[in-house]
Amino acid sequence: MNKVLVVGSINMDLVVEAGKFPAPGETLLGQRFSTFPGGKGANQAVAARRLGARVAMIGCVGGDAFGRELLGLLEKEGIDTRFVRTAEGISTGVAAITVSQAENSIVVVPGANHALSPADIQAAESAFAEADLVLCQLEIPLETVEAAAMLAERHDKPFILNPAPAMPLPEGLRARTALVTPNEHELSILSSLPDSQWQRQLALHPERILMTRGSDGAWFAGSDGELHHQSAFKVTPVDTTGAGDTFNGALAAFWGRDLAELARLACAASALSVTRAGAQGGMPTREELDAFLGSR
Ligand code: RIB
């Protein structure tokens, strides 16, 4: 299995479950409050690790109770946290999440994630040398993402970017990215084109964009520009938080297979991930993934 280097965010998810999403100005009574480990970076690291990859992470937590707890949980998963820095005097990133009917809405306060700097990337150069590939998202400063892409290029390692939350990307970063994994909405922000233009966008970038589309699965264009579709696997969802992260973690874990097979494995892993509460709660092990695929 691959050695994956994840550069990204680490959050504590503060989750309320409610019968519906509140309208602006409305107060609702919810059913339950829970805290779960989260952050797109940490989630993707855990997803790849559970599927059998060796995973190291570069990130930043605050010098508070959430930071200590999250660091301990990453270590318990078997993730190499030598390059997760603790920034004293800053709060650990948190995400306020409302879950209703398995859908979610999320507000992230980055806290220490925004203290992750290009200097942290340089300090972790040995991790780039050791990795087979580098996986990154956009919950850390863009200049840090760019520094990671440059160092990946210097070490000749594929750089996979999950552009979430989406923002327009500098040309240099695009050029250094082997595969970008937006959902439909994120793709429209990256391309500054309406959502409806996604097929054209995929065809213009063969084998460079793998787009997720929720219950419609995943799409990409092959080297001939033809669109390929992987259907989603049908499950009963409990909580869709972290489904995209599981998809990306699986891609990284299985990187090296062809794109159609990667899309199949990643869709299966993300289907399993939504069957339990919390971003990381349902992320499957390799055995669980194999059993699920074997039963289809
Ligand atoms: O992708 C889901 C994640 O987004 C949550 O765990 C939350 O922390 C936010 O970063």
What's the number of extended β-strand segments?
A: 13
Q: Remind me, CATH topology?
A: UDP-N-acetylmuramoyl-L-alanine:D-glutamate ligase
- What is bound: which ligands? alpha-D-ribofuranose
Low-confidence regions: none
Q: CA-to-CA gap between the ends?
A: 24 Å
Structural class estimated from helices and strands: alpha/beta
Spatial extent as radius of gyration: 18 Å
Spatial order of strands in the largest sheet:
5-4-1-8-9-10
Note down, in words, how this protein is organized:
Helix 9 packs antiparallel against helix 10. The radius of gyration is 18 Å and the shape is globular. It has one domain (3-18, 32-294): Ribokinase (UDP-N-acetylmuramoyl-L-alanine:D-glutamate ligase), CATH 3.40.1190.20. The strands form three sheets. A six-stranded parallel sheet has the order 5-4-1-8-9-10, sandwiched between helices. The chain has a four-stranded mixed sheet with strand order 3-2-6-7. Strands 11-12-13 form a three-stranded antiparallel sheet. By secondary structure, the protein is α/β, with parallel strands linked by helices. Helices cover 35% and strands 24% of the residues. The structure holds alpha-D-ribofuranose. The site of alpha-D-ribofuranose has 16 residues, from strand 2, helix 1, strand 7 and helix 9. Residues 9, 11, 13, 38-40, 43, 95, 106, 108, 139, 241-242, 244-245, 279 line the site of alpha-D-ribofuranose.
